[in-house]
């Protein structure tokens, strides 16, 4: 394994309520379960860490109950914290409501993770071999976007930058978004986020526009399509749709984070982009069969899952050949 994942996104505490369906306006529901868990960027970091990559967090954690909770979670996963806690405020939080169809609805409250300055980020030193990750959440905050963008632009030219615009992409000023995309090495986004950046169209057309018009230094773009898998478009012109895996989902919260973390981890180990995407599809598939946002599987889990699926495919191929 070469280098670390240096994560300069945001981590928050998730307050997770499971309900059969979202309540109608003005009504109330009783949740079937409740959990307080580390969330936000923590989910992506866990996915990379559990698949063998060393991870360091360069964002801000707060001073207070939620900040302490996150620090304990980081320590439990072996994730190093590079910056001192904010003396001004506690970490932010997010209420996540998981409905019976495994979909989720969020209401968030920003905290210490929403305020960054270059002085705060001074301890975050990127060395050769490191990978840098940032997300749209940190770029959506007025108190952090300028410093983070300046910091990303000042990175060594050979430091790979992975960027996930996230569902809050519409809250990121286009000038800020454009500057970060111009420095992005790998863009990972879902179909809606891709269209928000590059306009409507089929996935391949949008991916081509992303590389040609928005990410001039990128090696490739990954457009995630949930259970359908993802599309990988490389700067050299290669395009491949990587199928997903059929599973029984119980909680889709954190699936995108699991995908990105596993993808970066696999790339850092030398897997090809398409191999890394299939590995990431498996990680995301396993994550949605488990409750909680930080439900990313280990490398052993993923390898066993892929081996089992390969065996099933081989067996089906033999049955088809026999039937023919």
TrEMBL record:
Database matches in InterPro entries:
Carboh/pur_kinase_PfkB_CS, PfkB_dom, Ribokinase-like
GO MF entries: kinase activity
Which SUPFAM superfamilies does this one have?
A: Ribokinase-like
The Carbohydrate kinase PfkB domain is annotated at 5-296
Keywords of this protein's UniProt record, alphabetized? Kinase, Transferase
Q: Which domain of life is it from?
A: Bacteria
Q: Which Pfam families match?
A: PfkB
Q: What is this protein called?
A: PfkB family carbohydrate kinase
